[in-house]
Amino acid sequence: MKKNFLKNVFFACVSLLIFSAFFSACKNSENEVTPADTSQLTALIDSCQTLINSATTDDYPQDAITTFSNVVNAARSAVSSSTITQTAVDNLIVQLRQAREVFLASAYDAIPSSALILGLSFDENISNNQFTTEGKGWTAVLKKGPSEIFGTATNFPSVENNGKVGKAMYFSNGSHLEISDYTANDLLGSKLSISVWVNPDSTRAGNYIISYNYWNSWKFQLQEQNKPFFTIHTNADGWVDADNQADFSAPNKTWTHLVVTLDMDTKVLIFYVNGVSTMEWNATTKPGLTGTGPWQYKNILPLIIGACTTYEEAIAEWNWSWAQTPQAWDNFVGLLDELKVYNIALTAGQVARLYEQEK
Fold this sequence. Notes:
alpha+beta; Jelly Rolls; 2 domains; nine-stranded antiparallel beta sheet; eight-stranded antiparallel beta sheet; 8 helices; disordered N terminus
């Protein structure tokens, strides 16, 4: 919507500029007009040009920069006309100020550093199969997939050089990361956002990206047809399963940026793919969005990256058909990079900023 609005403003401004120049020329052909005072407009054009010169795609969408630049150039061309009237100059000042306001409003929103709970770049220094994460400084421990499921094929996650940004981590055969030194309150707030680059090997129903108490608190995964899929069990005892309703949003063997944001205060759940909002759910479309946050599961489990749960938990709590394993074991197969968890519901501008910085 923002891009369309910018384009509409651009065309409106250009139309006014052309009309003003034409009107001035016609009027001048009939009688002399008093030269217009263009000093204020010229100063405004100069200040807008300074703003454009300092604008980067880290802070503004390229479309917004291009659109605003076109408007400023059109205003500069019009003001150079010797036949421009004072009325046309005054109109141009109003239109250019409006275009500047729209451009400034398009700026990406900064993300407060304090909002980051967990950050995994996979460029961290790994020692003794563990490393310290960004954000709260928790300890991520590399774990093999359960040998009871995968036998001798089990392995640790591996660091690969072909990440989206620097290195990435490859998961297969149930390999995953476990974080046990977290504070539960940090993961049970009313607001939550998860941002990650995914590069799956294949289409699977249980491509788990990150899980807090599997589906008993919240989880984020790729579901059938490679759709981003989020589940929250709220403290009002309601389960919500939601996806972005677009098959193969995250194609196999391709890097895709996924974000899910949750705001239990406003009861809004939004999916983003490659910086763009693709689906929004609310309490009307997802009646289970009740309560004030996720439910605290009765057991104390690790926060898990790359898998659904621990083997011990599955044995104790699940009605599991072991004949289906390892195919039915829920774990990510492929590469993950730049995984971030925030204690806020990211805005569209903040999501776009993340995408632009990391793409």
